[in-house]
Amino acid sequence: MAYQFDFAPVLAQADLLLKGALFTLQLTVVGTVLGLAIGVLGAVVRAWRLQPFSAVFGVYVELIRNTPFLVQLFFIFFGLPALGVRLSEWEAAVLAMVINLGAYSTEIIRAGIMAIPKGQLEAAAALAMSRFEAFRHVILQPALAKVWPALSSQIVIVMLGSAVCSQIATEELSFAANFIQSRNFRAFETYLLTTLLYLLMAIGVRQLLAWLGQRWLMGRR
Amino acid sequence: MALLRVSALHKYYGDNHVLKGVDLSIEEGEVVAIIGRSGSGKSTLLRTLNGLESISDGVIEVDGEYLDAARADLRSLRQKVGMVFQQFNLFPHLSVGENVMLAPQVVKKTSKGEARQLAEQMLARVGLGEKFNAYPDQLSGGQQQRVAIARALAMSPKVLLCDEITSALDPELVTEVLGVVRQLAKEGMTLIMVTHEMRFAREVGDKLVFMHQGKVHEVGNPREVFAAPQTAELANFIGAVAQAS
Amino acid sequence: MDFTLWDIVRNLLTGLQWTLLLSLVAFVCGGVAGLLLLLARISENPYLRGLARGYIELFQGTPLLMQLFMVFFGIALFGIDVSAWMAAAIALTLFTSAFLAEIWRGCVESIGRGQWEASGSLALSRLEQLRYVILPQAMRIAIAPTVGFSVQVVKGTAVTSIIGFTELTKTGGMLANATFEPFLTYGLVAVGYFILCYPLSLSARYLERRLHGPA
Description:
The complex is a heterotrimer.
Chain A: H1 8-12, H2 14-47, H3 53-65, H4 69-79, H5 89-114, H6 118-126, H7 131-161, H8 173-184, H9 187-216
Chain B: E1 4-13, E2 16-26, E3 31-36, H1 42-48, E4 57-62, E5 65-68, H2 74-80, E6 81-84, H3 96-107, H4 112-125, H5 141-153, E7 159-163, H6 171-186, E8 190-194, H7 198-204, E9 207-212, E10 215-220, H8 222-227, H9 232-244
Parallel strand pairs in B: 3-8, 3-9, 6-7, 7-8
Antiparallel strand pairs in B: 1-2, 1-4, 4-5, 9-10
Helix pairs in contact in B: 3-4, 3-5, 4-5, 5-6
Chain C: H1 5-41, H2 46-60, H3 64-76, H4 84-109, H5 113-121, H6 126-156, H7 168-179, H8 182-211
Helix pairs in contact in C: 1-2, 1-4, 1-6, 1-7, 1-8, 2-4, 3-4, 4-6, 5-6, 6-8, 7-8
Keywords (chain B): Amino-acid transport, ATP-binding, Cell inner membrane, Cell membrane, Membrane, Nucleotide-binding, Transport
Family (chain B): Belongs to the ABC transporter superfamily.
GO molecular function (chain B): ABC-type amino acid transporter activity; ATP binding; ATP hydrolysis activity
């Protein structure tokens, strides 16, 4: 007996899916802004070996990069309450994404900083600029421009990874999909459409990030 | 009163004794050419003068500022001593004008308007007034180096250090850069140049310093020294350079 | 009922075994599939190339969780009762094949054109060029990033807990509920993954340094 595909029940709930998608995007934006901020801080600390912070960041980066995002999420949402820190689903999801992206971008941005030719630093030093002035005006922008493709990839990865936040009932896109298919019993169709929605979002975000990188980082040409 | 004085300068790279007791005195307005083989320590010596290299022993005095192994106010020193590099080291993400404006704004807290005016003046001084909005990768090597000179000049240094500033240029671009340097010398700038351009050193230099194995081997007026080198090493060096060109 | 630390660890180790097994299966099968996908991706046939490219972009542009659900519910459509293990293995294999194919494509493309031209001038067919000249060189470059990706595979297995596969994360979840010690349990789960992944990460970095070492 051939299976009859029926997308109508899913499309009827399209507004729920779109709301979920919007939520995913919101999560991603907040996570990205804060995550990149941590990344810049961590990258400087690591590149300049500012102890003891460099060691702390080192451990943080290794821990996050060698454990699954889902486990980090569960640890924050289920584990932290034991320490008296009780977060909402939204807060836990954002925190997990920030911590996750922060670790990856620390390494990525650090690579960008190390790739700046020594001559640039010497020129800035010869012009009597302090290390921090040199970082702000001569290193940061070129470093970010250099690693922007890698950073953009990582941001998209984090956005796609946010799908598991549905497991702690964060009402993003996957959660909406779970909800819909539990009512209409059209699991495959629901998840198919949801997957396509994610794909569109990934393509869109990648384009947006490329455009932003062009505008802000590559200089005004 | 010497503008810049170096006394008993020693530098070690690990066990390597790179500078073995250098003494040097430079008056205001002097043009000094430092020559020598690779490994003689000439670039290292130049780079200690603005603190890019630390010193192991000895004293450097620049316009009343003291630099020794223990203590150095580099920020203050570097506003008095500017440097132009062999590889130009322009900031690629900034326009030519912004390259020149950056340090005055950041270090001297010059206002944007004043910095812009200053930059325009400096660029005009090196003959690149119309390139204010261009980006470094749009310029030739000679033009980039002239921008680098303008950038250093914008900080109104008392001394300008030039580290082989024409060595990375195609031969036909060397003249335009040396022309700017010649003009600076005429205007009374104190210049210390590590260079391979012997003809330029002879024509424009007031003092020639020949370095050999980490020490100042000979010092004197370029024209006299070239005509009659006192030491065998310098004679060899001049001979070798003459052969190569 | 009181649980000792050893009770928890003992159960987690069982989950860890399944994580390890799933990772290996996905990596090996994904590697084979990835190689075929690579050949399609760099094929001279534009349709093959397009299909391969579409496949790769699909798997790189969608969440692993969705891919897992699609496999799980998709196979069920054919009336086949698919176990969590089966769905997990298939989904992770497909996922791995896409990423490995892309990594390896980068390595192949980094082989200079001169190698293609030289081997072509020696009358080798395209397949022979790949087999004897290009792929051997590309493989050397590919070792470091491939080992690096293995870390992602191990971490990816965690998502399969959501369809009920009793690997490390699912086991941890069940234990956390049973012992009311989520902090300890999930902490240990993280340690478990760390023990698997960190050596792989270090190896990848070591290999990367050896390859692009002191110039």
